[in-house]
């Protein structure tokens, strides 16, 4: 059987009017799931993704919930059409919660509670503490690590290793800016400011992690029915205790995305499907010619992916 992996994106995959093509269907599972999520967190997520937020604070407070809900809705649509089960799942940062919900490890309502608190606490970290997140394109990880160490008088660290050529740096605004300038001088092709307003996956997130640990004590997590590769250790945990610990550590640790993809490939899986409202993870794979990547950011691409993945299965 030709296996495939499902990948779930995190923050940054949002855009105005996302998923609009899916909402044109009758008996819409998307509206049902967005209504369920909106009731759970007491905020109209459907209005948020269609029209944006009236208050900027509301946007950052609820966009993580909207991304989670988008991925869950697409996955439920996949299941409604009797889509194949993947051999593995993994999610980038926030996307790890989507993967755990879809693998039946966490209830959707519980994931919404966690993500709502996660967003709220993350916003608190930036009060009177300017932060910055930048993508460094075309520079070796070791060089970037050494540059971060040279600016360690303030918090600055590698937030995510997305691919060989794309590494995300996060932390105090001035320190991240200085690291970006140094990276450019040392040969980086591009240094790009990301539309993320919190110092993700840096030590500045440790106070958030402590509060998240307290909430997770009251949440039931089961063994995933489909193996979920986590961000911090690049392994598939089965025990509730270890999954919770990994989710807490994820907040202030580097997302090892490149290693996750390498692990999937080592299992002889070269077909991957992004379940989310954009093509963020798909675009990361553009130069990885050994991988066949599909995405579900609109109804047309969803149907193409569905047909191709099931055709691959029938050919084997």
UniProtKB/TrEMBL annotation:
Residue spans crossing the bilayer: none
Species name: Buchnera aphidicola subsp. Rhopalosiphum maidis
SMART domains to which the protein is assigned, alphabetical: PKS_AT
Catalytic activity: holo-[ACP] + malonyl-CoA = malonyl-[ACP] + CoA
EC number(s) given by UniProt: 2.3.1.39
GO aspect biological process, one term: fatty acid biosynthetic process
GO cellular component, one term: cytosol
Protein name, entry field: Malonyl CoA-acyl carrier protein transacylase
Pathway: Lipid metabolism; fatty acid biosynthesis
GO molecular function, one term: [acyl-carrier-protein] S-malonyltransferase activity
A Pfam family reported for this protein in Swiss-Prot or TrEMBL: Acyl_transf_1
Enzyme class: transferase
Keywords, ordered alphabetically: Acyltransferase, Transferase
Keyword RNA-binding: no
Catalytic machinery residues: 93, 201
Superkingdom, taxonomy of origin: Bacteria
Family according to the record: Belongs to the fabD family.
NCBIfam families hit by this protein: fabD
Domain Malonyl-CoA:ACP transacylase (MAT): 7-310
